[in-house]
Automatic annotation (TrEMBL):
GO biological process, one term: cell division
Source lineage: Bacteria, Bacillati, Bacillota, Bacilli, Bacillales
Protein name stated in the entry: Plasmid replication protein
Organism: Lysinibacillus sphaericus
GO molecular function: GTP binding; GTPase activity
Stored PANTHER family: CELL DIVISION PROTEIN FTSZ-RELATED, MITOCHONDRIAL DIVISION PROTEIN FSZA
Length: 425
């Protein structure tokens, strides 16, 4: 079956992390006729070596170096300035590269110098280039072990973005702490480079799945989460939470009050790219369920829909829109499985995760202060030194040591003169 897209995406990647994810997203290959690579990307970095590492399979993706190629050294002010210096050139490239796209994702890794420093300026570029209401952000959160500078950079920019969040498009957070932990548990003997490839591809596939499930499959029920509704969801300000998981059809029995409902709830809350959201804040949500034709006939009953509605109403009771859409496909082969896709829009930041970053930042800052105070302490303050002995004079002058015969003779003459005087007296 030929895949169809709800929206034609473009990706504007900033810095090492942002360009890596954006390139992976644009490298998604489909079976769409005459359009195997439907997405495109503009990849911007200030470090020539890091930019050279990225070798897009998609020939429509473009790389752009800003600055002298030496990077920003994790200094967000330098990253911001480097972007500003070339912002007119960047604007022209954005308008050319994304001329045919429906929606642009601004991708940046929070924590470094270029991506973190340039992200706000890049928002301005998209607004000036006609993408107001047609762009969202994919932002990565650093791991706690990456150091105080990285955490502080991420928090500074995230704080500024959160203040304007109500006037921007959705934000999809990629939590490297979560993905790194998951990868290390599943593949403990893998390398860091393998993790990076995994995480980039993981983000790309998750977003692509979300973009195709709404347009590629035959709806079986009354409700259909179509492309226009997906677009409306992507225009909702706030955080975007995405859950995707697959269950064996044999473990799902819609006739016994959905014994798996609690498990589905936990999987939805766990999410794919980040977690810790208060789903009760969701303004909009959608759940899509996909399986093969035979399983669909057995499982997609009135009772199934009712139970799914109960589940989402428990999670997000005040959401304005919350369709439950079921799909079937004759092209799904192999063991009977059921795939669930859930999207929640209009959320606030994950409070526990941000608080964790703030706490770790403050802990490291206090630790650094203690180290500095230790360095300033006079290590020799209690040292009681003995008085310095007087330096002995060394001489090779024998007359100074023993005197001279001349002096002795002179002394003798003086004595005799004195005696003569005494006699006279």
């Amino acid at each position: 079956m030929e895949q169809k897209l709800s929206l034609n995406f473009g990706f504007l990647g900033l810095g090492m992390g942002g360009t890596s994810i954006a390139a992976a997203c644009a490298d998604i290959k489909t079976n769409i006729k005459n359009n195997n690579y439907p997405y495109t990307a503009l990849l911007i970095n200030s470090n020539q070596i890091d930019l050279n590492k990225i070798e897009p399979a998609n020939t429509t993706s473009e790389k752009m170096l800003i600055g002298d190629g030496k990077g920003a050294g994790r200094d967000i002010l330098i990253g911001e300035q480097l972007y500003e210096n070339d912002q007119e050139d960047i604007k022209q490239r954005v308008e050319t590269r994304f001329k045919e796209v429906d929606y642009v994702w601004l991708v940046a890794g929070l924590g470094g110098g270029t991506g973190t420093g340039a992200v706000i300026q890049a928002i301005g570029t998209l607004l000036k280039s006609g993408f107001n209401g047609r762009f969202g952000m994919i932002l990565t959160l650093p791991r706690l072990k990456e150091g105080r500078t990285v955490i502080e950079n991420a928090l500074q920019r995230l704080q500024k973005i959160s203040q304007a969040m109500g006037k921007l498009g959705p934000i999809l957070l990629v939590d490297n702490e979560k993905l790194f932990k998951q990868f290390s548990e599943e593949k403990p003997n893998s390398s860091v480079s393998e993790y990076l490839r995994f995480s980039n591809k993981y983000v790309a596939e998750a977003l692509h799945d979300l973009n195709t499930v709404t347009a590629s499959y035959l709806p079986t029920g009354e409700y259909h989460f179509d492309s226009s509704e997906f677009e409306k969801l992507l225009k909702t300000p706030g955080l975007l939470h995405f859950a995707r998981f697959t269950e064996k059809a044999s473990s799902i029995d819609s006739s016994n009050n959905l014994s798996y409902a609690q498990k589905l709830k936990e999987l939805i809350q766990k999410g794919v790219l980040s977690d810790g959201y208060n789903l009760e804040e969701a303004q909009r949500l959608a759940v899509s369920v996909l399986t093969d034709n035979a399983t669909a006939k057995r499982m997609f009953t009135f009772e199934f829909t009712k139970r799914m509605e109960d589940l989402v109403n428990e999670l997000s009771p005040t959401a304005l829109e919350k369709p439950i859409a079921t799909y079937q496909s004759k092209d799904i082969k192999g063991p009977a499985e059921v795939s669930f896709y859930a999207v929640f829009a209009g959320l606030g930041l994950p409070q526990a995760r941000i608080s964790e970053m703030v706490t770790e930042h403050n802990r490291l800052k206090e630790l650094e202060q203690k180290v500095l105070e230790t360095e300033k302490k006079d290590l020799f303050a209690s040292f009681d030194a003995s008085p310095t002995p007087k330096k002995e004079e060394k001489t090779n002058d024998l007359e100074a040591l023993f005197g001279s015969d001349t002096e002795k003779e002179k002394g003798k003459d003086d004595v005799e003169d004195t005696l003569e005087l005494l006699k006279l007296l």
